[in-house]
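S.,

Sequence below, as promised.
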Amino acid sequence: MRERREASQGTKAQRALGRRLARRMGLLVGAGMVVLVGAVPAASANSVTSVTPAEGCPGDIVMFHGSGFRTSGHGPNANWSDRTGIQEQFGDDEEIQESVETDVLTTGKSTEYKAVVPLFLQVWEGPKGSHKAGKGTVELEGKTLSFTYKNLYDCFGTGTVGGATGPTGATGPAGTAGATGKEGAKGATGEKGANGSNGTTGATGPTGEKGATGATGVGSGSTGATGPTGPQGATGETGATGKNGATGKEGEKGATGAAGANGVTGATGPEGKTGATGPTGTGSGTTGPTGPTGAAGANGATGAAGANGATGAAGPTGAAGANGATGAAGANGATGAAGPTGAAGANGATGANGVTGAAGPTGPAGTNGTNGTTGPTGPTGGSGGGGGEATSIGTLATKKQETGIWSAQIHADTGELQMQSDANVSFPIKLKKGEEVKYKYRTAAQTLKPEAPCLGSTNEPVVEPGSLCVYRGGVGFGSKENEDKNAAFKQFEDANGEPVEETGEANSGDLGVNVVFRTAQFGVEGAVVNVTAPSYLVAKGSWAVTAK
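The prediction came back faster than expected:
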């Protein structure tokens, strides 16, 4: 309570601001509502039991309930009081109104009165803070009832939202088309997509051309009459399909031999040598009677595959088939012609420093140089408070400490984009290469209870060797840790933005570290989100680091 009063009373300028706000709010409510003040009527035999609702804003109508109430004319006076809420904000400032008396109005019923809630300057804790209501009372006919006076920012808004959106204006004429922008740089090639499922087999193409007719064999007897077709033999199992061989060149078409004359069928003699093809005969034997149906012949050997026919028209896309087994890798195709040179890519991230090489052998001692002339005597130095050098060849010497201060702020209203604030802890004297230092963040509450390795306070930071301690202060109004809303300390990051807990490889953290604070809503992996609540953080403090 004391802190709130001091913060509210603060200066005369602040109290004057409160009085001006009270006068302005009084004019505002005076223009929008009527407060009826009249003479106090004589007491009557009645009983007041309750008021509903038991909270309200200036100008709201509330109802008193009971019995024996007047049914016409002026009602009795009601005494409204927000003393507790006003003193919580402004202390005992006599210029701020804590109570007010108004008439209540008759309703024609002996069990009800109605009244208008008066104005009190209930504005704690400002438009962006918690809107606290005043816990007060209202007294009627000797009966004191509890009554809550709503915060004026909840009643009339904070002034940052604005009025309701007006109707949409008529659409203006279309503007002229802008000039076409330059073609953007070619994007990086995306990853190879997964193999699509196999489609259904297309329709069979037309039969290929008939192959060339071979030479006519040795003549034979006359052809007998064709017998009836025998029953079809059983179809043999289809053999596994072999891989298609390479298509050979089509051979030249052979010449058709002349047909030989049909001779009378004689006894079969021994097979002679193949004679030359004779000229085509003119006669033919008569067709003999049809012989009986012969038994089904055995299936002949599968003929050689004919040449592939022309590709048929593409069939409709079938339902996705299951992925086939991965085929053997095909031979590499011939190297294509070089494509045009692509646009220059963005510079890659700086690579990590290489491992320090082994120390070279010590060179031979050089000869001593001649002594220079003695320089003039320097001025007398002041009396120093410490001993020893702070640096060791440009770096923080062993068990030496350096300190500094830091601060960070976050302000975001509901619906605004996420926020991050980095408090930079930059070492005036950098750490030795490979120095191992662990980072510790101490909240305001933890700072009040020192423990190893953080043994100091905000104003006197002390830390054990091999550690960095970041202390948060917690005294100043407006920067107290309990005033943080929807934001907090998140982590330590190095100069590249990588989360770290101690100095690392490639000199990470040798020059300093960032103390990162974020809103509670914060996207990951490049996503940016909106905060869902008012966010506020004002943090400050000190730091100290000691080399091992």
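The radius of gyration is 51 Å.

Coffee later?
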